[in-house]
Amino acid sequence: MRTFVRLILALSFGVASLSPAFADGGGGGGAATGCRLSVGPFTLLFSAYQPQLTADAKYCTDIPGLGRTNLVVDYEAKEGSTSIGSQRRLDQEIKKMKLGVKLIRESDGKVLVEEPPKAFRSGIVETVANLDQPGAYEFEVKLVGPDGKEMENHLELTVGKDSGEQLRNMIIAFVVLFAVFYLAYLSHAGFRQKVDAFFGKLKEF
Questions:
Q1: CATH 2.60.40.1930: which residues of the chain?
Q2: What are the CA-CA distances from residue 108 to residues 6, 95, 112 (Å)?
């Protein structure tokens, strides 16, 4: 049985080393913390989440899975820090602006998400998209000032590039559960007796 455990653990490390989500916190382009996007003089933070697939892992431009995806844009404020006065003025200015987002599937130009510019006082905008096809997507962020002046920037997203992500996650989850079971087997005599008795009955068939 110990040989089998060693084999399972070796397999888990091998699978983990091939998985981008496991190796660097998920995805590419600054995936562990999302990524920065400059819009005019302002710096915004973009993160994509797929909680049904990878819990709270953050992605930037490489999103491995398909399905429901939370897209979050927030402002990287410097107010109250050691930043210079000009940066603090930006922190105040952006509270007076409106922010809108749009997500376009590049294969057919279909607009999957379009949130018109709205007040950005909270410093965060979140929307949900159904990424049902692998391929390239364009995420557009637009800021509109009180005077109507518009500023925008884009991110090129790649979706579904790693088709084996979910399988690897399932294998890793299985290995973790097996390890917990085996530790319980070693440390609890009563549980070990029940398991041995169960397998003893199986041998009779």
A1: 24-161
A2: 48, 35, 11
Q: Please say if the pLDDT value at position 15 is more than 50.
A: no
The DSSP output letter for 90 is H
Give the C-alpha separation, 30 to 48, whole Å: 11
Sequence-distant (6+) residues with CB within 8 A of 187 are none
What count of Cα atoms within 13 Å lies in the side-chain half-sphere of residue 199?
A: 7
Q: Is 47 exposed, middle or buried (0-12, 13-18, 19+ CB in 10 A)?
A: buried
Specify the range with the lowest mean pLDDT, choosing from 11-25, 73-87, 183-197. Answer: 11-25
Q: Which two tokens stand for residue 193?
A: 């007796």
| Overall size of the chain counted in residues | 205
Residue 186 has a CB neighbour count (10 Å cut-off) of 10
Q: What is the CATH superfamily name and number for domain 24-161?
A: Macroglobulin (MG2) domain (2.60.40.1930)
Residue 151 near residue 40, CB atoms below 8 Å: yes
User: 104-139, pLDDT tens digit by residue?
Assistant: 999 999 999 999 999 988 889 999 999 999 999 999
Which residue has 């080393």 as its token pair?
17
Q: Produce one character per residue of 137-172: b if its CB has 16 or more CB atoms within 10 Å, e if not.
A: bebbbbbbeeeeeeeebebebbbbbbeebeebbebb
The pLDDT assigned to 168 comes to 66
pLDDT in tens, 65-86: 999 999 999 987 765 554 566 7
